[in-house]
Here is the input.
Amino acid sequence: MIGRSAGIAAVFAVLLAPGPASAQGLAGRFSLAIQGGTQAEVSGDLMAAADGILIAKPATLHSISYRDVYGASLRLQAFAGYGVADRVEVFARGTYYQTDAVGGVDAGTWNGTTPVFAFFEPYEEWGGELGLRYYLAVQGRLKSYVAPVVGARFVDEVLVSYSVPDAGSAVLNVPFSESSTVPVFGLDLGFTFDLGEHVFLGVDSGIRYQTAATGFDALPGLETLDDSSGRWSAPVSATLGVRF
Here is the structure.
C-alpha cells in the first residue's frame, strides 16, 4: 500500500511539475484559454425612484441598486489572443453570465405606510470583448499585464413583480427591461504563470462599465421605475490556457 501511494504521488509530481519557461516573447504566438470565475456588483441603480399609483393607491418607490438584487454567480469566458509584439497581445473573448435575484427587495411604501416588495427575474447575458494586453515582463514564468477592453453584451428581457403582502395584492410579471445590446468598457489586470513552454495558468481581474438595457415603461404613472443607470462590476476569473 505504501509503495502504491508513493507511486501515485510520483506520477502526480511529474504531471504537475512546471517545465522550462519559454525564453521567447509573445510576438507571433497564439493563445487559447478557458476562464471561469464570478463578478461583484460595484455600483449602479437597477430601479429608479418614482411616485405614482400602484394597485389603485398612491405609492412611493425608492431606487434599488444592482447589488441589492443580484448576487455573485458563475461567469464563463473563452479567450483567443495573438502576440503582435514581444510584450503586446491582441485578443477576443466570449463571455456568458447568469445570476438569480436574491428574492423580495424592499421597494418603498404603498398607501402611505404599507411596505412594497420587488421580485426580479434572473439576469442573463452573452457578450464579446476585444482588448489589448501589455505585458510588463515576458521572459520569466510569471507574466503580469494590463489590458483596456471594449465590447458588447446581449442582455435578456427582465420581468419584475411588485407585491404588497399586507394588502394581499400584487402586480405580477411586469416587463421591466427589454432584450438589449449594450456597450461595455473596462480594464483588465492579471498575470499568467507558465507550467511549460505551451501550458499556462492565470488570474484575471478588473473593472467593467456597461450601459443600461432599454426600459419598457410598462406601468402608467410609474414609467421612470425602469430608468436604470449604468452599471459598474468587478469580474475575477481563473485561466487555463495554451500558447503555440
Summary: The domain at 20-243 is CATH 2.40.160.20 (Porin). Confidence is low (pLDDT under 50) at residues 1-23. The chain has one domain: 20-243.
